[in-house]
Amino acid sequence: MGPVDSPARDSAAQTGRDSAAHAGIEQHSIDWVPLSERHGKPSNVGAIWFVGSLNLTGLATGVVTLSMGASLVWTVVATVLGSLFGTFFMAFHSAQGPQLGLPQLVQSRPQFGYLGAALTVWVFALVNYVAFNTSDALLSGQAMNLLTGVPNTLGYLLAAAVATVIALFGYEWIHKLNKWLTWPFVVITAAVTASALFGGGLPDDAWNAGPFELAPFMLVFVFVAGFQLGWAPYVSDYSRYLRPDVPVRSTFWWTYLPSAVSGIWVFVLGAVVSAAAPEGTDPVTALKLSADRLFGGFGTVAVVVLLVGLLSIMAINQYGGSLTMISIVDSFRPVKPTRTIRIATIGIMLAAVGTVSTLVGIDQFNWFFANVVVVLTYLFIPWTAINLVDFFFVRRGQYVVKEIFNPRGIYGRWGWRGNLAYLIGLACMAPFMVITGLFVGPVAERLGGVDCSVLVGLPVSGGLYWAFARSLDLATERRMVREEGLLDPLH
């Protein structure tokens, strides 16, 4: 494929692209975004990542945290720390978008190789999209059932149809939708918060901290950090149209603060709502019960608003899943980034998520969501360390874009440095892992069930990759970057 050079686009294709672009339908997928099409301000990404958590899945995250064994007070403390920690790495990935003008996962090829990235991190990323959208599907189906009485499966299909249209229109419309939703969501979420805190329903001892127990505290910390880190494989997809002269710090802060603040807000809200609901209540019903304490019927309003927010996130997951599938296919056979292939891959996402959500069912939501987020955290911790070390410390934002799309290029088919650092990092994490009801590593078991795998995986994977990268011929790469003339040095 030709992500850079115009010969890859003949005049007829360009005419079609211009027409579709005028209609608002995005034409780019995994290809490089030309400088002539770069636009917007760093503040534009703020709405995406603020609204990104203000939805039913964000609320459900808080509901799940309270089921992990810590008191409400210690759950809140672990939630705040976990969100601040996980969002830190996610926001630095966001800063890669303007520098490269590429989707997040395509930029993994220089570390893992042309094929290596497809068979490791991209497969895990696809699982990430399907798993998170399955959680969204379960909640959207339950919300539609609660609001209209339609069966959960039909409710999901109706919600997914709207999300599919948004995903097809792509980057611009996802940004516009989240911008429009920001202030209405702030108002409704504030009202739900007031109802949850002061509307009654909380046990008398709800704010009694009780004894500190490290094991459940770390379960909550890892879970929340993992939820925030779950954005990392696609966060820069929504900043890649910004111009490359946008400073890293601007994109970082416009991602970090909105995402961390809204995440902490809705996660804590979910925990409080759960504490006031009967044991075993699903997140959607718990929200409705809590909001109705403010005044009759407000629960329905709250569910509708957070369902709309969920549609936006479903669209983002479908969009990201589509880009990942295209990236995987392109690693084996070059593809043109057309509207047709985007429609096909979004359709595949729709069918896959519908099938998995039907098999899981809303009754298994808490178990499914908790374990999926934790497992995906383990899989992406080594990747995020390697990718960020390469971008900020090894290559310092300087990549040869053409070579990223060249299967026989300088980045190779198998990046032994990235793959080896990844495998060793994952192996070192394993003894410290805790997957509730499924697996407890030997070191974690000796520590009484304390999961500190994240604190092991990050330095081991990142440190090993940095050491392995010392043998790279960076002088030649930087000369090729200058000759290509597409990217500015890292700001």
From TrEMBL:
Membrane topology: Multi-pass membrane protein
Keywords carried by this UniProt record: Membrane, Transmembrane, Transmembrane helix, Transport
UniProt xrefs under InterPro entries: Pur-cyt_permease, Pur-cyt_permease_Fcy2/21/22
Coiled coil regions in record: none
GO MF, one annotated term: transmembrane transporter activity
Domain of life: Bacteria
Region (Disordered): 1-23
Lyase is among the record's keywords: no
Primary site of residence: membrane
One Pfam short name: Transp_cyt_pur
PANTHER family for the chain: PURINE-CYTOSINE PERMEASE FCY2-RELATED (PTHR31806)
Family: Belongs to the purine-cytosine permease (2.A.39) family.
Name of protein: Allantoin permease
